[in-house]
Task: inverse folding
């Protein structure tokens, strides 16, 4: 009996790619295809599903991670495969924290989606070894330390140095130092440019 | 109500009263009657006023012709009573001639009613009626040879007319067509701003109908009161025709020159709002022409692009504000994003975020965009991030726009922060506040506004409507549609003209090998002269985009256009097809990585079908939000749909990997 698959992705072309993969395989059958995470969750909670392919970043409504957590809590038998095209550094860890079964980068495509789906249904937890490397000015994302990435995340949220310092429990001077380091590494001209590039490049995406 | 027209109407009413008074006096006192001549004078006066007031040639000609028919009525009366010998051919022929205006004026009225407020007038029906009218006139005029028209007999020195079937048909014709015309007028009044004044044409026509009925109830002769002849049928016909059209002009259903002046407000208003930018554009363009080195050329071209994007969007915002003066906040998003495209080329890192959407007064959107533009011009920017938050809390709408910039300001930081970015007057009207701050080398400028949806402040609505430069409340349906068409034509002109320039500019800046520099100059030169001219150039002139030029431009930017089929010779259809090809190529260049544009044109006897496709290249992220589920038609697609539907055609857009536009244009639409 074929596995019932629900897709949640606000990008039409992505949904069509997933639908095409499902149509090619006898192991899977499409149960529903939704443009919003909330609609997908409503369906899964009502009718159930074997596998949910959930995009993380949704232009409207709740994010895929939030909804995936709800599905795992209320419908634990459903396997959740998180997908994204954003190289945001925290997504892999957050997906693991909420109990997502697998994770797949749309752009990188280390292996075909169908293979990941089959492995997931076979009980494997398929996660990339690392996040994609993102260029940021003269630097790449792997050149940033974990603390620098945390500061960068707060920076992209529009916080001032003092607010970042308060949130992370460090001094304002330390925050400035981290920002200065990142600016030097990237060659950007201002902290705002650093924040804008990090955000538009998908390296850090505020919730 | 058109106040300036009231003066003319008071004169007309005064004239009628004077004539009626003279009519009574001539009977009572026995003065030689000059009533007929006074009525002829009245009609002539009215015809002169129509000539001055009504710019629409179609309507003007038919009204003047109606006036000629009315004059004919009175002239025939004079000839018959004062000059023709009883029993002579002239005497009889004058009697027959009475029926000509009876048959012609209702056809003229119907033609005018069909014409006002519609984009596709049904001429076929009018042509058929005209043919019938001519036939009936000829039958009546030849009544000497048959008994179908009027049979005139003489006894005791006076003439008696026995009506034949065609005469009855003529009377029925007059009543029926007049009623139909009046019904159409009422219908058009009902859906226009003139509906509040519909009682004016109703009163005039009711009075005419009553007078007509009384005349025929009196056995087809002039009703009398105290032995005084009150009126004749000629006066009734005059009153009905003049009354109907004069009242339509008065209530604004037919646009007169006093209303059409509003049209100039659109152009003038837009030009005023962007005139300083236009002057800057010209300066930069002149610098470009004389520029020596490529580096400076590129810098100036970028500046031209940034300014051009602002002018294009700024003009757009004023034009697309609806008649109530509201705009969707999405328009602000589109405007800022387009501006950002050019700032990115200048090396400014940009980002935009929005939460929530709402229809807000256009003054707010335009003020926000101007606010943004001023900030962008206040220093050497390296980064800019704009965040727009719109929320509805119960019955209130909150609007917040924050613009974060990393820059070296042209003036001292504290002076920059103290500057009056938005005038106190506008802030007061918007109920808004501007907050400027600087922290950690980042300048933040915020515009906050909050108002009640249930009771939007009157002065805010008033100013927002003024931004549209037209008080639609004064207009009748025809004028509203006329101005709407004019506004759309102007918007299309600015959008298309600047749009092409900006696209080529961007293409050149991204890859100068792909865009011909001479072609780039040519386009900007044409844009400068097109937008700046103060002439009353009609929209048709500016709509003619040569598709072959578009194809050459596309090729110069790396897009192959594969055209199959033949573009029809019909001028209007060609114009629409040109626009379709332009929009299609523009979309490919802006949003996709596609390098082929497919255009197929097939025609049969009735219509022309155009299908536009692109190769199935993956859409970039920026386009995904536009073409995810349904296509949100903005800018070029919106304009194209307007052009297609104005031509009586249909347009279907299919999103997806093979983005397709299918257009069907009938050959016989106006």
Result:
């Amino acid at each position: 009996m074929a596995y019932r698959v629900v897709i949640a992705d606000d990008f039409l072309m992505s949904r069509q790619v997933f639908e095409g993969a499902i149509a090619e395989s006898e192991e899977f059958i499409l149960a529903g295809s939704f443009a919003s995470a909330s609609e997908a969750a409503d369906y899964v909670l009502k009718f159930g599903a074997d596998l949910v392919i959930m995009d993380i970043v949704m232009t409207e409504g709740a994010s895929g991670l939030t909804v995936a957590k709800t599905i795992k809590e209320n419908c634990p038998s459903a396997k959740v495969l998180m997908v994204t095209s954003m190289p945001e550094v925290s997504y892999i860890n957050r997906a693991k924290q909420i109990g997502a079964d697998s994770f797949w980068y749309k752009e990188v495509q280390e292996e075909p989606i169908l293979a990941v789906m089959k492995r997931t249904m076979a009980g494997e937890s398929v996660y990339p070894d690392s996040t994609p490397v993102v260029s940021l000015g003269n630097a790449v994302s792997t050149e940033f330390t974990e603390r620098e990435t945390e500061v960068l995340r707060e920076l992209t949220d529009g916080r001032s140095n003092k607010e970042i310092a308060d949130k992370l429990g460090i001094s304002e001077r330390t925050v400035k130092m981290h920002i200065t380091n990142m600016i030097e590494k990237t060659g950007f001209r201002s902290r705002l440019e650093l924040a804008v590039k990090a955000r538009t490049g998908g390296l850090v995406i505020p919730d | 109500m058109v106040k300036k027209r009231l003066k003319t109407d008071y004169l007309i009413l005064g004239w009628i009263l004077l004539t009626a008074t003279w009519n009574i006096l001539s009977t009572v006192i026995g003065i030689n009657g000059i009533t007929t001549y006074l009525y002829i004078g009245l009609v002539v006066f009215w015809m002169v006023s129509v000539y001055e007031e009504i710019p629409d040639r179609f309507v003007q000609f038919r009204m003047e012709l109606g006036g000629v028919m009315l004059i004919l009525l009175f002239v025939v009366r004079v000839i018959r009573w004062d000059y023709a010998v009883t029993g002579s051919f002239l005497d009889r022929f004058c009697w027959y001639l009475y029926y000509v205006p009876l048959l012609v004026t209702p056809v003229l009225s119907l033609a005018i009613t069909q014409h006002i407020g519609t984009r596709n007038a049904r001429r076929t029906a009018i042509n058929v009626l005209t043919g019938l009218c001519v036939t009936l006139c000829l039958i009546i005029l030849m009544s000497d040879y048959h008994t179908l028209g009027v049979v005139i007999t003489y006894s005791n020195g006076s003439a008696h007319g026995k009506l034949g079937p065609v005469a009855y048909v003529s009377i029925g014709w007059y009543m029926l067509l007049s009623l139909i015309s009046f019904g159409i007028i009422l219908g058009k009044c009902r859906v226009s701003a003139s509906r509040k004044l519909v009682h004016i044409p109703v009163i005039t026509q009711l009075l005419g109908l009553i007078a007509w009925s009384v005349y025929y109830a009196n056995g087809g002769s002039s009703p009398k009161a105290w032995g005084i002849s009150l009126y004749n049928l000629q006066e009734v016909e005059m009153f009905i025709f003049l009354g109907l059209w004069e009242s339509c002009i008065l209530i604004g259903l037919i646009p007169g020159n006093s209303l059409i002046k509003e049209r100039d407000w659109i152009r003038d208003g837009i030009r005023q709002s962007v005139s300083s930018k236009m002057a800057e554009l010209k300066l930069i363009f002149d610098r470009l022409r004389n520029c020596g080195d490529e580096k400076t050329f590129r810098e100036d071209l970028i500046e031209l692009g940034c300014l051009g994007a602002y002018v294009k969007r700024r003009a757009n915002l004023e034009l697309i504000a609806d008649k109530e003066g509201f705009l969707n906040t999405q328009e602000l998003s589109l405007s800022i994003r387009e501006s950002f495209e050019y700032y990115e080329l200048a090396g400014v890192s940009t980002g935009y975020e929005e939460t929530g959407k709402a229809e807000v007064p256009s003054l707010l959107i335009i003020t926000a965009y101007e606010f943004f533009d001023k900030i962008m011009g206040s220093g050497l920017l390296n980064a800019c991030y704009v965040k727009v938050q719109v929320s509805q809390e119960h019955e209130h709408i909150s609007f917040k726009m924050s613009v974060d910039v990393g820059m070296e300001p042209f003036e001292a930081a504290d002076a920059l922060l103290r500057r009056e970015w938005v005038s106190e007057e506008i802030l007061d009207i918007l109920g808004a506040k501007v907050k400027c701050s600087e922290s950690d080398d980042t300048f933040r400028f915020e515009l906050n506004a909050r108002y009640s949806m249930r009771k939007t402040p009157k002065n805010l609505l008033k100013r927002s409507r003024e931004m549209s430069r037209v008080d639609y409340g004064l207009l009748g349906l025809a004028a509203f549609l006329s101005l709407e068409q004019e506004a759309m034509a102007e918007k299309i002109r600015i959008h298309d003209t600047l749009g092409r320039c900006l696209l080529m500019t961007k293409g050149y800046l991204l890859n100068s090998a792909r865009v011909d520099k001479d072609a780039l100059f040519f386009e900007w030169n044409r844009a400068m002269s097109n937008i700046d001219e103060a002439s009353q150039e009609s929209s048709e002139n500016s709509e003619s985009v040569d598709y072959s030029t578009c194809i050459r431009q596309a090729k110069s930017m790396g897009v192959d256009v594969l055209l199959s089929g033949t573009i029809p010779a019909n001028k209007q259809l060609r114009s629409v097809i040109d626009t379709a090809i332009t929009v299609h190529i523009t979309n490919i260049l802006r949003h996709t990585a596609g390098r082929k544009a497919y255009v197929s044109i097939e025609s049969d006897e009735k219509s022309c079908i155009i299908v536009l496709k692109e190769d199935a290249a993956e859409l970039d992220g920026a386009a995904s939000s536009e073409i995810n589920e349904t296509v949100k038609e903005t800018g070029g697609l919106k304009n194209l749909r307007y052009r297609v539907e104005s031509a009586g055609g249909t347009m279907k857009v299919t999103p997806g990997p093979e983005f397709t536009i299918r257009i069907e244009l009938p050959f016989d639409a106006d």
In short: Chain B is about 60% helix and 15% strand. Residues 477-510 of chain B form the longest helix (34 residues).
